[in-house]
Amino acid sequence: MVFPYRGTYIRHLGANQAVAEANQVLFFNAGEEYRVSHPIPGGDASLSLTVDPALLLEVTPEGLVSGQSIPRFHCQRLRIDGRTQALVAMLRHSLRKRIAEPLEAESLALTLMQRALGPRTTHAAAASNGRQRLVDRVKLVLAGDLARRWTLAEIGAEVHCSPVYLTQVFQQVEGMPLYRYQLRLRLARALDLLDRYDDLTVLALELGFSSHSHFSSAFRTAYGRSPTEFKRAAIGM
Length: 237
Known about the structure:
By secondary structure, the chain is of the alpha+beta class. Helix content is about 50%, strand content about 15%.
């Protein structure tokens, strides 16, 4: 289970592809051949969990995997919710700072797995290949400039479709409005960068928020605590 938290890439699996960014968890099956491309410069970083087969079968809802000795996922990715993003950041920061005891880290990882796979906290894409490719292009446009205050007309021009059609297709494929998806990408980037900024107003403005209060309000709504509270809990700062 791979949780991208910085940068964007495309995973190609046969004729299918999945855009890997911070709103997704990707599944890599043992022995499966794939390739990765980077249409946006800057590289990427992910938190990866290699899961014991017995544990995977125990925590995964029916229909997502098959097999016993070597379980295999049936889809490339699922969209995760804000609280799952927060768990990714909490686990990553605590491991990097070496402030998590083994039992705490294992408990966080198990909670992350369960939430990332939970039917109430994830969303599987359900659309034609053409609509999925359109949404993938939109994701790359957004990821290419997270701080930009895009308009629907500007995004539509980039992907060559009308704003009305764009919003309808995006909602169908991702199960949430386009503006909220972009907000989640910005907030996920904030989770990654919190430990590098003493002045969170600077971080807020660099990510395209109009003010510190706008950033803080959106952050609390998504993750249940303010940026300062999260930073203190995850990083001890």
